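Researcher: Good morning. I'm working through a list of sequences from a screen, and I'd like to move beyond sequence-only analysis. For each chain I'm collecting a predicted structure so we can compare shapes side by side. This is the next one on the list. No need for commentary yet; just the structure.
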Amino acid sequence: MARMGALARSFAARLTAAERAIEGIIEWQDAIASPRKKRDTNRLDNRLIFHGLLHDHFDAEELKTLCFDLGVVYDDLGGDGHDDRVRELILRCMRDECMGRLLWRVRQLRPAVDWPEIT
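Model: Good morning. C-alpha cells for this chain:
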C-alpha cells in the first residue's frame, strides 16, 4: 500500500513537470508567432493604405502612364474600373517583384504623399 502511494506521488510529480513543460512550449510558440502575426497585419494594413493612396492620387490616365513607366501593359491588368486596375497593378508588382520600382516612382511623382512601405 505504501508503495502504491509512493508511485502515485511520483506519477503526480512527473505529470506536473510535463504540464509545466507543455505550458512553456505553448508560451514559446506564442512568443514566436506574435511578431509574425503583427508583421503580417502591418503588411496587410500598408497594402490597403497604399491601394487607397494610389487610387486617390492617380486618375485612370495617370495610372496608364505609371504602368508604362513600369513596363506593365495597362490593358493586360484585370478588372473593369479604376479601383480594380489599381488593385491589379499592385498585385502584378507584388507577383513580379517590382513593388520597389512602383513605390520609387509614385514617391517621385507625388512626393508630398506619405507612401507606406509595402513588400
